[in-house]
């Protein structure tokens, strides 16, 4: 990360959160009733991602954007956007194409997703085109009114893109006092949402799309504030402890009338504390490194596997042993594909794009310097 020390513990925790989201989605569509899900609050992993993103973006780019940055490291708005697109967009495209194939080729849905009959050509084409740019689209049939039917989890990345643009435009210049005020207002809005819905599981569908910006602004600003205030807690070799803590938080049972408040406390108290401890741990482990590399591809590619498994389960009505075996195989297949895509496609493509971007930036820098002579 631009020559800076790497927070491998935080990377590993992102992998734990991604696996937890995958498990949550599988359990959600198997057990159907929220109280039966062994990880009923793992939807909060998205808020953990947002908070971690605020911390990491601030750490990586606070000193590089704007006129105060050293000339050799200065990064303009366009350069920042290019870097973020290189980091994120290849898997957006791959996830969209995989989701489109999975939607049309799912053998367990009958004719509910048949192109040209139950699914109009225009509606599908619009979803495919807009999904390549992470833009919400009218929901496809059989997809529960989701804003991103071809890849459900993409709703959160769309919010991440918007906030990344806001950070590059003005956020990097906001002082700590104003940032704290923004975070306080966002956290208050988050509390209102959590108490109103008795949950923070909102933002993925058109019926509650308004919850998405509230969630991302609150958590991202908290993460950015943690970085700006240099809040770290030193706990040696903290990765196993923090991994267990995250899973325990995701496993807290839902309690009617109190679940919204519990969600809010997880997001504004527990997750920032986890990040502060993770930021204070500079130890490295191979498992954390693998988890960090795998987290984003797994998050972006897992949903078609969830849908295949869920529709198979609903149609086949298997016994618990067979269902458990197929679920384990589904997880293994998704993890295997995510790793293969990471190693053979995503990382090589990003390396090639980064090299081209660096060459173009160097050429522009030389041209600008020559013009001053």
Task: Write down the overall mean pLDDT.
Answer: 93
Number of strands: 0
Number of H/I helices: 12
Count of separate structural domains: 1
Low-confidence stretches: 365-373
Largest sheet: none
Approximately how much beta-strand content do the residues carry?
Answer: under 5%
What general form does the structure show? Answer: globular
Give me the oligomer status.
single chain
**End-to-end span in angstroms?**
33 Å
What is the chain-wise order of helices and strands?
HHHHHHHHHHHH
The residue fraction in helices comes out at 55-70%
Class per helix and strand makeup: mainly alpha
Rounded Rg: 21 Å
In short:
With 373 residues, this protein is an all-alpha fold. The protein has twelve helices and no strands.
Give the secondary structure arrangement, pairings included:
Elements: H1 8-31, H2 45-61, H3 77-105, H4 121-131, H5 154-169, H6 176-197, H7 211-228, H8 239-250, H9 259-279, H10 286-301, H11 303-316, H12 320-371
């Amino acid at each position: 990360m631009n020559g800076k020390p790497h927070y491998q513990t935080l990377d590993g925790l992102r992998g734990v959160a991604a696996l937890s989201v995958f498990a949550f989605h599988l359990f959600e569509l198997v057990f159907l009733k929220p109280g039966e899900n062994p990880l009923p609050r793992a939807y909060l992993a998205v808020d953990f991602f947002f908070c971690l993103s605020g911390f990491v973006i601030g750490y990586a780019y606070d000193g590089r954007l704007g006129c105060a940055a050293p000339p050799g490291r200065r990064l303009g708005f366009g350069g920042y956007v290019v870097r973020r697109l290189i980091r994120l967009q290849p898997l957006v495209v791959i996830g969209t194409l995989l989701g489109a194939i999975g939607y049309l080729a799912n053998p367990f849905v009958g004719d509910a997703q048949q192109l040209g009959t139950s699914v109009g050509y225009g509606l599908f084409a619009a979803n495919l085109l807009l999904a390549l740019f992470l833009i919400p689209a009218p929901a496809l049939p059989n997809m529960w009114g989701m804003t991103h039917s071809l890849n459900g989890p993409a709703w959160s990345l769309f919010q991440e893109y918007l906030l990344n643009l806001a950070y590059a435009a003005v956020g990097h210049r906001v002082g700590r006092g104003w940032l704290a005020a923004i975070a306080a207002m966002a956290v208050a809005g988050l509390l209102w949402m959590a108490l109103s819905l008795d949950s923070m599981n909102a933002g993925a569908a058109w019926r509650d799309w308004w919850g998405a910006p509230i969630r991302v602004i609150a958590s991202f600003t908290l993460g950015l504030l943690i970085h700006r205030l240099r809040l770290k807690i030193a706990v040696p070799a903290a990765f196993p402890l923090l991994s267990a803590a995250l899973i325990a938080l995701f496993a807290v049972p839902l309690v009617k009338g109190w679940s919204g408040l519990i969600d809010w406390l997880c997001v504004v108290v527990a997750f920032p504390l986890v990040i502060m401890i993770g930021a204070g741990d500079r130890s490295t482990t191979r498992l954390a490194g693998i988890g960090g590399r795998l987290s984003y591809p797994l998050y972006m590619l897992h949903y078609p596997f969830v849908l295949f498994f869920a529709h198979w389960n609903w149609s086949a009505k298997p016994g618990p042993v067979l269902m458990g075996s197929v679920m384990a195989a589904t997880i293994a297949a998704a993890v295997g594909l995510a790793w293969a895509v990471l190693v053979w496609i995503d990382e090589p493509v990003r390396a090639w794009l980064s090299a081209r971007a660096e060459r173009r930036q160097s050429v522009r820098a030389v041209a600008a310097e020559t013009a001053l002579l």
